Amino acid sequence: MEWHKPPFKLKEIKIEVTHDCMLSCVHCSSLASEVTGRSIAWSSCKNILCEAEAMGIETVAFSGGEPLLWKHIFKAVDQAVRSGIKVYVYTTGNVPNVENLLRQLHEAGLSKVMFSLLGTNAEQHEKVTKSYGSYNKTIATAGYCVTIGLQTEFHFVPLNHNFKALPEIVNKARSMGIDRISVLRLVPQGRAAYIRHWELSRDQNCELRRIIKDLRNDSYDIRLGSPYNFFMLSEKPECCAGIDRITIGPDLRIFPCDAFKHISPDAIGASSDYSNLRDYSLAECWEKSSYLGVVRQYLTSDFASECSVCKNLSDCRSGCMAQKFYAFNELKKTADPMCLFSNKMCEENIGAKL
Length: 354
Description:
Helix content: 25-40%
Low-confidence stretches: none
Strand content: 5-15%
Structural class: alpha/beta
Radius of gyration: 20 Å
Number of strands: 9
Number of domains: 1
Number of helices: 13
CATH architecture: Alpha-Beta Barrel
Strand order of the largest sheet: 7-6-5-4-3-2-1-8-9
Shape: globular
Mean pLDDT: 95
């Protein structure tokens, strides 16, 4: 089994340009709301993009909150594209004049847009978004993106009341001309810390795994983020947090990945030096951050004893380190808290790997 090895090259950055959003999703890690006052200054974003070009970064994703509410989004996308960087945008589609804005971004060279779809109907979706009419608006905006030829994806967060709807969501997407669905694991941070009773149980995760496997066998494109490595359904199960990517908040703090947004450097025994872009350059943070260093050390050192002797280690890489932190309140070398092999019924029903 190969380890990540230095030198680590930064390939992808996600910039949370604002935490303003028209929705109030109950699982939002950014604690977004209509007016938060948390937005990145254009001068700061421009500097980041200039550094990204100089460092040879391949992809920039703009997220939030709702990035389409940020008044500088067109300038940011345009500058990144002109620098030869591939650009993605995450959106709810619930933005005034959204079709005109997305058309302009598409014409400027936006590569892909990604929408969160949290149910097969308004009742399911809006149980999470807490915004009446948001389902129809998301569907309509995603459909518009398809019609203008902008690559479009849906992202789905399984919860204990919606995970069985995944096949219907996939069929809905296909009928709209959207081929890929990304399934993202709930992270108990931000507002999601208050809905832990909505998390999937181990048995429900086992059932979700079967659903995904069946959909893939039927030729549906279902992408799993690395926090789902414990499903053992990825050809290359690795975590690249702090290895080739980071997330940048509107306050210019850096994080190894989205799941670390509420895990401070101090919480994992790291210094906060070189962990914000107010005081340091992007290159300095990438090369000198103790915060990133602790994460890299975790990802490039031996596994926990119970994992190292497991025959399935190469298929799961012991799961998600951020989920372990939230389960044990430390960056602990242990199996993923949802390890399917700690449950006999799940183990017996996992069956053959893809």
